[in-house]
């Protein structure tokens, strides 16, 4: 059995993709199964934390003991995160948030014609960066899914968003499957975790977070 390293801690996570409606039947999304975020929520709950999971549209089952809040779009995800942020000790942003959403939402299905169609997109808020910038921010963990130059991009992201910890994975390793191999980037350097099942990897991430929380003596 795993040691309960997060007893008395509250952890908020985002997971899955977001879906940005173009019209009632179409939209823009990211490919994300939600598996890694749900595995992390489960690992946090197993470690004794009180866990809230804000989930975009996925087929994943809610892990035992986890409070789940379902959302569709990035704006809904941001609202749900801020509505649940009070008293959280840790925020782990695993969601693959769509970077852009259609500028206008259309009430009726767009009809096909032979003319060119342009859809204007506006940037979505960066939920993780907004949470990390708060005055009494929880311990914030970001994910960096990259197709190359993992260490460089992950470190850049960690510094740009002012995060104590970024979990980096090469997308060809992890996306959609049951296994993952990740490297953790913090102020002390790069820490590769043994590759494995997403739940085992999640437990390794939780161990690392628990160790960092102990050192920083927050709350
Ligand atoms: O900058 P990039 O999107 O690659 O950063 C990824 C990290 O930021 C992930 O932890 C992701 O959940 C989070 N993120 C977010 N809101 C966004 C975009 C990314 O919380 N709009």
TrEMBL record:
The keyword Metal-binding applies. Keywords: Decarboxylase, Flavoprotein, FMN, Ligase, Lyase, Magnesium, Metal-binding, Multifunctional enzyme. Pathway: Cofactor biosynthesis; coenzyme A biosynthesis; CoA from (R)-pantothenate: step 3/5; Cofactor biosynthesis; coenzyme A biosynthesis; CoA from (R)-pantothenate: step 2/5. GO terms for biological process: coenzyme A biosynthetic process; pantothenate catabolic process. It comes from the Bacteria. CTP binds at residues 99, 109, 125-128, 143, 157, 161. Residues 6-211 form the DNA/pantothenate metabolism flavoprotein C-terminal domain. Its cofactor is FMN; Mg(2+). It catalyses: N-[(R)-4-phosphopantothenoyl]-L-cysteine + H(+) = (R)-4'-phosphopantetheine + CO2; (R)-4'-phosphopantothenate + L-cysteine + CTP = N-[(R)-4-phosphopantothenoyl]-L-cysteine + CMP + diphosphate + H(+). One of its GO terms (molecular function) is metal ion binding. Residues 11-219 are annotated as: Phosphopantothenate--cysteine ligase. GO terms for cellular component: phosphopantothenoylcysteine decarboxylase complex. Catalyzes two steps in the biosynthesis of coenzyme A. In the first step cysteine is conjugated to 4'-phosphopantothenate to form 4-phosphopantothenoylcysteine, in the latter compound is decarboxylated to form 4'-phosphopantotheine. Catalyzes two sequential steps in the biosynthesis of coenzyme A. In the first step cysteine is conjugated to 4'-phosphopantothenate to form 4-phosphopantothenoylcysteine. In the second step the latter compound is decarboxylated to form 4'-phosphopantotheine. In the N-terminal section; belongs to the HFCD (homo-oligomeric flavin containing Cys decarboxylase) superfamily. This is Coenzyme A biosynthesis bifunctional protein CoaBC. It comes from Georgfuchsia toluolica. The gene is dfp.
């Amino acid at each position: 059995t795993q040691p309960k390293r997060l007893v008395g801690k509250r952890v908020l996570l985002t997971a899955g993709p977001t879906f940005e409606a173009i019209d009632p039947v179409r939209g823009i999304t990211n490919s994300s199964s939600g598996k890694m975020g749900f595995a992390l929520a489960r690992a946090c709950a197993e470690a004794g934390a009180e866990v809230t999971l804000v989930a975009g549209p996925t087929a994943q089952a809610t892990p035992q003991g986890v409070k789940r809040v379902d959302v569709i779009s990035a704006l809904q995800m941001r609202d749900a995160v801020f509505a649940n942020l009070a008293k959280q000790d840790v925020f782990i942003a695993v969601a693959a948030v769509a970077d852009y959403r259609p500028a206008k939402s259309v009430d009726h299905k767009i009809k096909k014609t032979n003319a060119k169609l342009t859809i204007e997109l506006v940037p979505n808020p960066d939920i993780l960066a907004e949470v990390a910038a708060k005055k009494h921010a929880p311990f914030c963990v970001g994910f960096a899914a990259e197709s190359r130059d993992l260490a460089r991009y992950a470190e850049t992201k960690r510094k740009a968003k002012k995060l104590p910890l970024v979990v980096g994975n090469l997308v060809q390793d992890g996306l959609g499957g049951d296994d993952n191999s990740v490297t953790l980037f913090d102020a002390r350097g790069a820490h590769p975790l043994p590759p494995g099942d997403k739940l085992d990897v999640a437990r390794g991430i939780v161990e690392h977070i628990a160790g960092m929380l102990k050192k920083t003596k927050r709350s």
